[in-house]
C-alpha cells in the first residue's frame, strides 16, 4: 500500500482538487487497493468546510465530484501515517518540513516533482478567477495520471 497525503494551505482549493483527480485516476487504473489518498492544509481557517465552490464546480466539469470532502489540518501523526507528503508549492513544503516531528518517516516532496511533471508549484487560485482553477485542474490531473501510471507499472503481477 502506498499512502499519499496532498498538502496545500487551506485544503479547500488545490489539495482537494488534486485528491479528487488522483482518486479518479487511481480508481480508473484499478489501483484502489494499493494506493490510499488523502489531503489536508497547513492552515486551519477552513477546517470542516467543503472545498471552495469554484473548486467543486471545476472538478465537476471534469467529471469528478469533490463536494463530499472536508478540510482538515496537517497533524503530527500524518508524518508516520503516510509514505509521502505531496506539497502543492514550495512555501507549503517549507512549512511541512518545519513541522516535522522526531520520528517522522514520510518523504516530503513537491506534488509536481514527485509526479515527474518537472519542478514547480501549483499556483494558489484562491484570490483569482475560474481560469485559475482550470489551470490548477490541468496541473493536478496531469500529475494524477502520471502517478497512477507509475503505480501501475510498479505493481507486482498477480500469479495465475
Ligand atoms: P488552497 O487555497 O491552499 O489551494 O486551499 C487557499 C484557500 C484559502 C486560503 C488560502 C489559500 N486562505 O487564506 O484562506
SSE blueprint and pairings:
Layout: E1 2-8, H1 14-28, E2 35-41, H2 53-61, H3 78-81, E3 84-87, H4 90-98, E4 107-110, H5 111-114, H6 130-154
Parallel strand pairs: 1-2, 1-3, 3-4
Helix pairs in contact: 1-6, 2-6
Bound molecules: 4-nitrophenyl phosphate (4NP).
What features would you describe in this structure?
The structure is a single chain. This protein has helices at 14-28, 53-61, 78-81, 90-98, 111-114, 130-154; strands at residues 2-8, 35-41, 84-87, 107-110. The two termini are 21 Å apart. It has one domain (19-150): Rossmann fold, CATH 3.40.50.2300. The mean pLDDT is 96. It has a four-stranded parallel beta sheet with strand order 2-1-3-4. It is built from six helices and four strands; from the N terminus they run βαβααβαβαα. α4 links the parallel β3 and β4 (107-110). It is globular. α1 (14-28) packs parallel to α6 (130-154) and α2 crosses α6 (130-154). The chain has 160 residues and is α/β, with parallel strands linked by helices. Bound molecules: 4-nitrophenyl phosphate. The site of 4-nitrophenyl phosphate has 11 residues, from loops.
Q: State the total count of DSSP E strands.
A: 4
Count the DSSP helices: 6
Mean pLDDT: 96
Q: Which sequence of strands runs across the widest sheet?
A: 2-1-3-4
CATH architecture: 3-Layer(aba) Sandwich
| Ligands bound to this protein structure | 4-nitrophenyl phosphate
Euclidean distance between termini CA atoms: 21 Å
Provide the CATH top-level class: Alpha Beta
Q: Runs with pLDDT <50, length 5+?
A: none
CATH third-level topology: Rossmann fold
> Which homologous superfamily in CATH is the superfamily?
Response regulator
Rg, please? 15 Å
| Largest sheet report | 4 strands, parallel
Structural class: alpha/beta
Please estimate the helix content.
40-55%
